[in-house]
Amino acid sequence: MLSVAKKLEEKQRRETLEDLLKLCLWGNKCDIALTDGDVPMLKHSPTEAARMLDPFILRNDLKTAIDSFFLRLRPNKKGLRELHVVLDNMGPEFMNDLIFVEYVMETKLADRTILHGKEYPYFISDATRNDFEWALAELNRLDGGVLLFHDHRFWTHPYPYSEMKTVAPDLYSELSEASIIIFKGDMNYQKLDANIDWSFETPFQVRCRTFFFEGIALLQTHSFFRYRVTNSVFWHVV
């Protein structure tokens, strides 16, 4: 009975992780350009709406990433399983990100989560420390030292991430402690592959060049014409 219960619990945990990661993915289309400032009316629950968008996902390695990483995060040299999330937009996307990391922490899948944001908005909706502190206050939550927000000037610099080790060695060193890093959004994607016109067959490891860690996940939506979503990508790197 205990074996059956354990398998059921892991199955439920896997399904919940997949649902929450899809919310993080599709939340990426929710910046200020989505509605031109209008207040949208949701016709479905967020989870149901995310599932309905499954046919629009071009590259989906969620199940592999969940089984290989999120359910089995490896501790770093300090003995901590650290989840790092490089944020994109404040608003619905950021709230979805918080829900995801809250679940990861509550289920003891990670010991600490570090959210990386910008010192100031590179674009108008970019998440900053003020946004993080406001959100925690509104939710009446305390981080307790296990949910941290770190900003760094490098995130607003024009350099591709392959130059981070030279330009911002302190940030590179911090990211090297991560058990997995989630990058959100188009800007992070472009800086990961240096915005080079790679052929579609080029492995992601090659695109990242010198910026390469054991676990990298990318959640991104492509868009055009007022952010009409055309496809989405989830990559994980082993």
Query: What is the structural class?
Result: alpha/beta
Mean pLDDT: 84
What topology, given as strand order, has the largest sheet?
1-7-6-5-2-3-4
Runs in which pLDDT lies below 50 for 5 or more consecutive residues are 224-238
Euclidean distance between termini CA atoms: 35 Å
CATH topology: Rossmann fold
**Care to count the β-strands?**
7
CATH architectural grouping: 3-Layer(aba) Sandwich
Radius of gyration using CA atoms only: 17 Å
What's the total helix number?
9
Q: What is the domain tally?
A: 1
Gross morphology is globular
Q: State the share of residues found in helices, binned by percent.
A: 25-40%
Under the CATH scheme, which class?
Alpha Beta
How much beta, percentage-wise?
A: 15-25%
- Major sheet description: 7 strands, mixed
Give the topology string: H per helix, E per strand: HHEHEHEHEHHEHHEE
The CATH superfamily is known as Uncharacterised protein PF01937, DUF89, domain 3
GO molecular function, one term: fructose 6-phosphate aldolase activity
Pfam families: ARMT1-like_dom
GO cellular component, one term: nucleus
Domain Damage-control phosphatase ARMT1-like metal-binding: 3-212
